[in-house]
Amino acid sequence: MNPTLRQDEAPPVTPTLEQVAERAGVSRSTASRAINGGLRVSPEAQASVDAAVAELGYTPNRAARSLVTKRTDSIALVVPEPDERVLSDPFFAGTLNGLSSSLADSDIQVVLVIARPGESDRTLRYLRNGHVDGAVVVSHHRSDDLDSALLTSRVPNVFVGRPLSTEVVGVNYVDTDNVAGGTLATQALIERGCRRIATIAGPEDMSAGIDRLIGWRAALASAGMPDDAVVYGDFTIASGAAAARDLLARHPDIDGIFIASDLMAAGAMGVLAEAGKDIPGDIAVVGYDNIGVAASTTPPLTTVVQPVAAMARAAGARLLAQLQGMPTPVEPLIFEPELVRRASA
């Protein structure tokens, strides 16, 4: 039951900034600066204001605070993908988890911005109009132009994944060495004894799809093996299944497949099973990402680790450093890939 006030009772009084200043023994402007970031405030005054805020139960007016600091205390996680993809792909859940953990010791909140295909201009207007203090961009496609647009804006930003625009220099980003990862996955199939190795590559307009395919080709070239068995997917289960059907029809002699994402691998493995192919007896399979689905496929999937949460945490830390005016590295942060061996290869 909600408590109600009697007619002779006055509503509780909300503490004011003036009362905080009086209790702390400082001026109103000093109290305001202490509450809004501690700029030009002595340690003693800061401690007094903090104590007064706690004693009085003072809650800053967020709107007034934004006017003073020009900050929203929020950052955007920008995902240029359709809604259904963002809500169903565990990659994005891992990214959100990692980014949120990087902000655990701050008051900054994460706003999810789904930049649907064809809506890049709308997203850029939102970012530039001061609704957020900065942005982390993940799952960037060439056509969304977010890398070049954000570089010329005043919006602090970090990309998860290598930006694609060749003319863009200086974009801050975090990534995995996807070329090395594609090579590592393919070498695992070669070492197993596979002689006809195909790939289900990722999208041709994303750096992850491009780089993992380069790694596959490099490993096959080093082994003197053909690299013509290529089909493409979009990192979804459905596209992996469709690509596997295409591969079996066009290249019935394949005995190994490097698949550029675990979700595509899950879809492909179902098709291989329906076609009567034993995994790994007839066709060995290696995926990429090491998300939860990799351990639950039949058989469990050998895959390359992409440390999604760690990448997002690193991106969040870099963005926080920018917002705090701290020196930030110009060079990208690149994680090294690692192979996790399971029964599929």
Q: What's the structural blueprint in terms of helices and strands?
A:
Layout: H1 17-24, H2 28-35, H3 43-56, H4 62-69, E1 74-79, H5 83-88, H6 90-102, E2 109-114, H7 120-128, E3 134-138, H8 146-151, E4 157-160, E5 173-176, H9 178-192, E6 197-201, H10 207-222, E7 230-232, H11 237-250, E8 256-259, H12 262-274, E9 284-289, E10 302-305, H13 308-323, E11 333-335, E12 338-340
Helix pairs in contact: 1-2, 1-3, 2-3, 6-13, 9-10, 11-12
Walk me through what this model shows.
This protein has 345 residues and is α/β, with parallel strands linked by helices. It folds into 3 domains: 17-69, lambda repressor-like DNA-binding domains (434 Repressor (Amino-terminal Domain), Orthogonal Bundle), CATH 1.10.260; 74-175 and 309-334, Rossmann fold (3-Layer(aba) Sandwich); 178-306, Rossmann fold, CATH 3.40.50. 42% of the residues lie in helices and 15% in strands. The chain has helices at 17-24, 28-35, 43-56, 62-69, 83-88, 90-102, 120-128, 146-151, 178-192, 207-222, 237-250, 262-274, 308-323, and strands spanning 74-79, 109-114, 134-138, 157-160, 173-176, 197-201, 230-232, 256-259, 284-289, 302-305, 333-335, 338-340. A 6-stranded parallel β-sheet has the order 2-1-3-4-5-11. A 6-stranded mixed β-sheet has the order 7-6-8-9-10-12, sandwiched between helices. α8 (146-151) links the parallel β3 (134-138) and β4 (157-160). It comes from Cellulomonas edaphi. Keywords: DNA-binding, Transcription, Transcription regulation.
